[in-house]
């Protein structure tokens, strides 16, 4: 059987809070909640989820990997404002100002982008 993506794992200082933040951002649910692990996903049988694991140290450098989120073009700015209201903040990682994405960070400083929707598919 070939490999498939199961979870994206995010280390977190505040396990329940960060998991709930991302569940609200993505409109996902808490699928599993244990003392040292919280898993969120769109549904129990979803193909992939995000797993949050506790760490004692805080994030101090830019992510080497980040998530890109998208929405319908007409909802993009409202979605960015909704995510900011949930506790995200805008980040400057050297943008010029004409990018097709907005860089944000979650409450623990993990960068992610809200990108414009794709207008064409690569085949």
Automatic annotation (TrEMBL):
Superkingdom field: Bacteria
Q: Which residues does the UniProt record annotate as the domain VOC?
A: 4-117
Q: Which SUPFAM superfamilies match?
A: Glyoxalase/Bleomycin resistance protein/Dihydroxybiphenyl dioxygenase (SSF54593)
PROSITE patterns with a match to the protein in the record = VOC
Known Pfam families for this protein? Answer: Glyoxalase_6
| Residues annotated as transmembrane | none
Which PANTHER family is this protein grouped with?
Answer: CONSERVED PROTEIN, HYPOTHETICAL FUSION PROTEIN
Q: What is the protein's given name? A: VOC family protein
Its source organism is Streptomyces adustus
């Amino acid at each position: 059987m070939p490999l498939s993506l199961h979870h994206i794992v995010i280390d977190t200082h505040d396990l329940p809070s960060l998991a709930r933040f991302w569940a609200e951002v993505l409109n996902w649910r808490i699928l599993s909640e244990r003392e040292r692990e919280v898993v969120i996903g769109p549904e129990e049988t979803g193909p992939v989820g995000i797993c949050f694991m506790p760490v004692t140290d805080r994030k101090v450098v830019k992510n080497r990997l980040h998530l890109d989120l998208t929405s319908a073009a007409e909802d993009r700015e409202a979605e960015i404002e909704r995510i900011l209201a949930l506790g995200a903040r805008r980040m400057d990682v050297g943008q010029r100002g004409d990018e097709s994405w907005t860089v944000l960070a979650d409450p623990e400083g993990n960068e992610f982008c809200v990108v414009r929707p794709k207008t064409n598919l690569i085949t």
